[in-house]
Amino acid sequence: RAFSRKKDKTWMHTPEALSKHYIPYNAKFLGSTEVEQPKGTEVVRDAVRKLKFARHIKKSEGQKIPKVELQISIYGVKILEPKTKEVQHNCQLHRISFCADDKTDKRIFTFICKDSESNKHLCYVFDSEKCAEEITLTIGQAFDLAYRKFLESGGKDVETRKQIAGLQKR
Q1: DSSP letter, residue 31
Q2: Is residue 76 in a domain?
Q3: Which residues lie closer than 8 Å to 157 by C-beta, 6 or more apart?
Q4: Secondary structure (3-state) at 22
Q5: Is 67 within a domain?
Q6: How distant, in Å, are the alpha carbons of 2, 61, 97, 159 from that of 76?
Q7: Which residues span the domain enclosing 59?
Q8: Tell me: the pLDDT tens digits for 4-35?
Q9: Where is the PID domain (predicted)?
């Protein structure tokens, strides 16, 4: 299998880092594309193939792959312009339905997020200089912490309740 999820619970970050702050990562943003399904390795593989091809064409025209900063927290994944810190995309955690790194290309990682306005599923694809698996695990840890926070609040945390409702629908 090219894409897989780790089941062990040895996290790399402290719970405080993800719940009170965020974990930043630098990556190149290959882009996002609409996908038919909210999850699945084939869905992601097709999106990666499509965006790599489009990127190849743009590169031949002299366009560079834009660099972005990812900020991962229990609230979601923000995609920012690294110099100005302007938010380009804000993907709330409860809208992310699938996240994977490519086992055949260690630099590539993806996640599928339901767009809040169009309700379409978009697959975001990144090239992260060999830390794709770490980024995937960090997003997994954010999900784990958000769920634990929800359980500890007894379901009273409204924001977390929305996230869990979204997770349970999947």
Answers
A1: E
A2: yes
A3: 149, 150
A4: coil
A5: yes
A6: 25, 34, 12, 12
A7: 15-163
A8: 444 445 688 998 999 899 999 999 999 999 99
A9: 25-153
How open is the CA angle 109-90-115, to the nearest 5 degrees? 85
The tokens for 155 are 């379901």
How do residues 100-131 score in pLDDT, each as one tens digit? 998 888 999 999 999 989 999 999 999 998 79
Judged by DSSP in three states, 62 sits in coil
**Residue recorded with tokens 């359980």:** 151
- The model's pTM is 0.83
State how many domains the chain has: 1
Spatial distance between the Cα atoms of 12 and 139, rounded to a whole number of angstroms: 11
Q: In this structure, is residue 142 part of a structural domain?
A: yes
Backbone angles phi, psi at 26, to 5 degrees: -100, 140
